[in-house]
Amino acid sequence: MRDLLVIFVVAVLVSFLIKTFLIRSFFIPSESMEMTLVKDDRIIVNQLVPEVTPLERGDVVVFKDPGGWLPARAEVQQPPLVAAFDWFLAFVGLSAPDSNDHLVKRLIGLPGDHVTCCNALGQMSVNGIPLDEPYAVLPAGDMKVSEVDFDEVVPEGSLWVMGDNRYNSKDSRYNGDTPLKGFVPIENVVGRAFVVSWPVSHWAWLGNYPDTFAGVDEAAEGGD
């Protein structure tokens, strides 16, 4: 019994350290990232991004609400035993009760990027480079990758993010009236989602489509 108890305690501590410093799980609370991510999917997030591994355009990022993006919600009261069990699962990283306090979007613009939409073909551009976005979901018959036009330069220390489900995502485009004008502070980023872990039928690696953003860095260095 003593050995089993030691093994259990060590396993819990290891799980806690992994969840705290390396990876953790989140569930998808909305349809804003369809069809890349479907509501109630579980994703695994690399928490070494951005502190150790740099952010890249096209990353699917999880971040804390910058303020005013999410509606206020009432705290759900649970029986003490259920609350204790949920706390334990969250402690070891098997549950994510704070998923509703975070958002999941695709990173489009890094600090200093000039993001605009839309050109004559309905495309968005970053630093003057039109993007071919295979992940973007549009209503049938629509060509524009955004129903609203925009022209923004991403401030230092911030990001421009958008949902893949372009006509059903409250992202940087629609939060211009919040204190940070729709931009997301890099310090709010929890990490980069890299795999769909559940359900098994949705299992997939989450890429950042480097071909889509090819040439954007060079255009930025050229002062576009």
Automatic annotation (TrEMBL):
The active site is at 32, 105. One of its GO terms (cellular component) is plasma membrane. The chain crosses the membrane at residues 6-27. The keyword Membrane applies. Gene3D superfamilies: Umud Fragment, subunit A. Its EC number is 3.4.21.89. It is a single-pass type II membrane protein. GO terms for molecular function: serine-type endopeptidase activity; signal peptidase activity. GO terms for biological process: signal peptide processing. Keywords: Hydrolase, Membrane, Protease, Transmembrane, Transmembrane helix. The keyword Membrane applies. It is found in: Cell membrane; Membrane. Residues 2-198 form the Peptidase S26 domain. It catalyses: Cleavage of hydrophobic, N-terminal signal or leader sequences from secreted and periplasmic proteins. NCBIfam families: sigpep_I_bact. Belongs to the peptidase S26 family. This is Signal peptidase I. It comes from Agromyces terreus.
